[in-house]
Amino acid sequence: MGDIVSPEKRSEMMSGIRGKDTKPEMMIRSGLHNLGFRYKLHDRALPGKPDLKFTKYNAVVFVHGCFWHKHDCHLFKMPLTRSAFWEKKFESNTSNDKKNMEILAKMGWRIAIIWECALRGKKSIELIDILKTTDNWLKSKNRFLEIAGK
Hints:
alpha/beta; 5 strands; 14% strand
């Protein structure tokens, strides 16, 4: 089955998708700021440009979109058209994610990933619970945290 919109319309729609300052990211940023945390945004000096960098806690947080990072959840659906393009795109994204996590860990950074499905969709978690979990993790010595929908 082909695409239901024209290539021009699809291009326009895809170009409107944000890479930073997304709604899920803004929810996490606002919530953690309200809890008293201060952070740097999208630090280009670090691999993967983490969404949030907490220097005081030697920690970084990524808020990953389930589609772009090919998360195994109900929000990810493989596109039916241009399969080879999408396979290559998702392979590149997941490979870069893995490489960046390894480099950050070797640099001594603690890493958290909060998946989009934790914040929206039929399996989402209450925002306050995500914020409490992240708060506890930041204040701990744990190296890694991953929060995904139930």
